[in-house]
Every structure is written in C-alpha cells, then in structure tokens.
Design goal:
This protein is mainly beta. Helices cover 14% and strands 42% of the residues. The longest helix has 19 residues, at 2-20. InterPro entries: Lipid/polyisoprenoid-bd_YceI, TTHA0802/YceI-like_sf.
Length: 219
C-alpha cells in the first residue's frame, strides 16, 4: 500500500510536465492597443485573436482580424478601418515566431515564467522582425500567455492625416492576454500562418468559443 501511495504521488508530480508537452491554442485571445496623447486617448480591443504555442518546438503564432477591434466611439472605429489600417485590403495582423533560447521540456516551468519571443509581425501588409517580452504560466490545465510591447504605426506604413496627427501617439502600447487550452484534435480551418505549427495528424485547436460582442461603441 505504501508503495502504491508513493507511486501515485510520483505520477502527480510528473503531471504538470506531461501536460506541458504539446500544443496550446485559443480563438478568443484578447488584444488591446492604446494611444495616449495630451489631446486624446484612443483604445481598441479585440477578443477574437487566434493563437497557438507549440511546447515541443517553442513556436508561437497569433492572428487577429482588424475589423474585430472595438472602439469607444463609432467614428474612431470607422477611421481605424477605413483610413489607417485599410481593413478591407489588409484584413488581419499576424505574428509568427519562436521562444528565444527554447529547449524542449523547458516550458512552462513552475509559476510565472518570463520569456522573449522573436518573429515576424505583419500589420497593414508590412512584415517586420520584432522581439518582444512575454510570460507563460500553466494554471489549471490552461496556458496563460501575456505580452506587452510597443508598435509604431509609421513602421507599418500607416499614415496619419496631418489634421489628427497630434491626437495619435507615435508609438502605441499593445497588450496581449491569451488563455490557451490543450489541443486534442485537429479542427480546421486555421489561419495559413499557423499551418507550419501543425503536423497532419497532430493536435490542434479545440472548438472555438463563440465571440460575444460587448455593447456597441457610443458616440
């Protein structure tokens, strides 16, 4: 009996490591960007970001529809989609990269683990190599992923009209928060940029949770 208890305790200690091997994903990730100036604060939020992290390779990818960003004011949302990011022509922003210095079995460790991720961030049809900080935490079988970094609209050929140039910050703060689940079954379609992360018979995203839009932006 004593040996069985010790064996059970040993398996429990190994469980977090076993759960960490594989892919975690979400289709309801949260992305917020904020522009603050003395004249005006502008904030856009989306909860329709799809993301995936492969614990076997350290690869990371996410994609967010530009039209899913919701603003406080309707006019802000219209200008964002029509005049700045041209959402009809460039419908998504994407990132594809990997954890810097990744070693198999290393992630996630105990508690909150800080990482650096390097890869290609594509916005408005412009791809740029970036390196951003982030954290990973395995909690109740969910992989919590967060990151905060800055993006300059000028780096992505997003032109701001002179009339409102003082109202929009030259650098915007982007905050990302994903709660990812283990991916037991392949369930296409996934964004094309994620395809390299999934083997034909490997695991993939769990069924998506339907997005519930909040109250419409007022003006």
């Amino acid at each position: 009996m004593k040996h069985l208890l010790l064996l059970g305790l040993g398996l429990l200690l190994l469980l977090p490591t076993a759960q960490a091997q594989g892919k975690y994903s979400t289709r309801t990730g949260s992305i917020r960007f904020f522009s603050g100036t003395p004249l005006e604060d502008i904030e856009g939020r989306s909860t329709q970001a799809a993301g995936v992290l492969d614990m076997n390779t350290g690869k990371v990818a996410f994609s967010v529809p530009m039209k899913s960003f919701v603003f406080k004011r309707t006019l802000m949302q219209e200008h964002f989609n029509e005049n700045y990011v041209e959402s009809e022509k460039y419908p998504t922003a994407t990132f594809s990269g990997a954890v810097v210095g990744f070693q198999p079995g290393q992630l996630p460790g105990t508690g909150l683990q800080r990482v650096q991720v390097e890869g290609d961030l594509t916005i408005h049809g412009v791809k740029r190599r970036v390196r951003v900080p982030g954290t990973l935490e395995l909690k109740d079988s969910h992989l919590l992923v967060s990151s905060k970094f800055n993006v300059a609209p000028a780096d992505y050929n997003i032109e701001i009209p002179a009339l409102v140039r003082d109202n929009i910050a030259k650098t915007m703060e982007v905050t990302l928060a994903f709660s990812c689940d283990p991916t037991p079954r392949l369930k296409p379609p996934l964004p094309d940029e994620f395809s390299s992360l999934f083997s034909p018979v490997g695991p993939a995203c769990r069924p998506a949770t339907r997005y519930r839009a909040g109250p419409g932006p007022g003006r």
